[in-house]
Amino acid sequence: MSEQLELYDVTIIGGGPAGMYTAFYSGMRDLKTKLIEAREELGGRILIYPEKMIWDVGGLTPTLGKDLIKQLSQQAMTFDPTIVLGQHITGLERQSDGTIILTSATGEQHWTKTVVMAIGYGILEMAKLEIEGADRYEVSNLHYTVQELEVFRGKRVLISGGGDSAVDWANALEPIAESLIVVHRRDQFGGHERNVVKMKESSCVVRTPYAIDSLHSANGTDINEVSIRHVESGEQERIEVDAVIVNHGMRYNFGPIREWGIEMGDWTCKVGSSMNTSIPGVFAAGDFVDFEGKVRLIAGTFTDAVSALNGAKLYIEPEADKYAYVSSHNAKFKEKNKQLGVVEQNEH
């Protein structure tokens, strides 16, 4: 089977920030690279909140999620990796020569010397509103993510949820919505404290501990009223709305990956100092990994990507340099700098 396939040095599973930066850095290390993403587009979990402002990436001023995806995608393509979209990898098999065959859910196969798993928490699914018949409104005004803020301009909006995304959406929508109410079943919000304070100090109405009890429609296709219920007293209130946004968290599913033999906890993979997993030749990065000192920010993900790729490089070439030269001294960037019209000082 392997003789019919093209052999890659490294194959990255996952097209979020960790996977995209791994693809870029793999090019810096002159490795033949393939990236496989289960969705039909790159971006990973950031795709859920494209209008969310991201503040904590070093060197970037506040950047919308969709713009960060665009920049990461462009960077990932710097050294022309092979990108495969719409394939969910379900099988991994080490060959007698140490190479690895990856198999997708639909039967496609990929041959590689090493693997970097940047799969986050696996296949993501939004937790749906558990009310009978709620799904009929998903094509009209029941939303599980905010793709475009302008859709909600001048509307009466109800948000159900209390995590980071719910709080961020409330702060983003408050200036443009006609009215905004946030319903959360607990008194405490899980979002960053500064953002929670901002939300509570705005014109946004916060109702806790309340939960959505039922949805009402005058025309059978759009929600025009929502009944909310006090989770302790059972008292109900009916609210007129133009749009409902539900953020009740995510459901994560690793599927067959747990059967590959990788040492895992409930939601993360255990790795060694070179981001190596318990399977030789398989490395990991991003939200999927856990180790002492792990930084759970996008910025930390980039460091994971570098460490995992360096581990893969040394696995293939034990005598190679431990790290790539920085871009200002890396020969691979000289020609690209010339293409950008940059003349290095020592060339004057």
Automatic annotation (TrEMBL):
<keyword id="KW-0560">Oxidoreductase</keyword>
<dbReference type="Pfam" id="PF07992">
    <property type="entry name" value="Pyr_redox_2"/>
</dbReference>
<dbReference type="InterPro" id="IPR023753">
    <property type="entry name" value="FAD/NAD-binding_dom"/>
</dbReference>
<protein>
    <recommendedName>
        <fullName>Ferredoxin--NADP reductase</fullName>
        <ecNumber>1.18.1.2</ecNumber>
    </recommendedName>
</protein>
<feature type="binding site">
    <location>
        <position position="124"/>
    </location>
    <ligand>
        <name>FAD</name>
    </ligand>
</feature>
<keyword id="KW-0521">NADP</keyword>
<feature type="binding site">
    <location>
        <position position="287"/>
    </location>
    <ligand>
        <name>FAD</name>
    </ligand>
</feature>
<dbReference type="InterPro" id="IPR036188">
    <property type="entry name" value="FAD/NAD-bd_sf"/>
</dbReference>
<feature type="binding site">
    <location>
        <position position="37"/>
    </location>
    <ligand>
        <name>FAD</name>
    </ligand>
</feature>
<feature type="binding site">
    <location>
        <position position="49"/>
    </location>
    <ligand>
        <name>FAD</name>
    </ligand>
</feature>
<keyword id="KW-0274">FAD</keyword>
<comment type="similarity">
    <text>Belongs to the ferredoxin--NADP reductase type 2 family.</text>
</comment>
<dbReference type="InterPro" id="IPR022890">
    <property type="entry name" value="Fd--NADP_Rdtase_type_2"/>
</dbReference>
<comment type="subunit">
    <text>Homodimer.</text>
</comment>
<keyword id="KW-0285">Flavoprotein</keyword>
<feature type="domain" description="FAD/NAD(P)-binding">
    <location>
        <begin position="8"/>
        <end position="292"/>
    </location>
</feature>
<feature type="binding site">
    <location>
        <position position="328"/>
    </location>
    <ligand>
        <name>FAD</name>
    </ligand>
</feature>
<dbReference type="InterPro" id="IPR050097">
    <property type="entry name" value="Ferredoxin-NADP_redctase_2"/>
</dbReference>
<feature type="binding site">
    <location>
        <position position="89"/>
    </location>
    <ligand>
        <name>FAD</name>
    </ligand>
</feature>
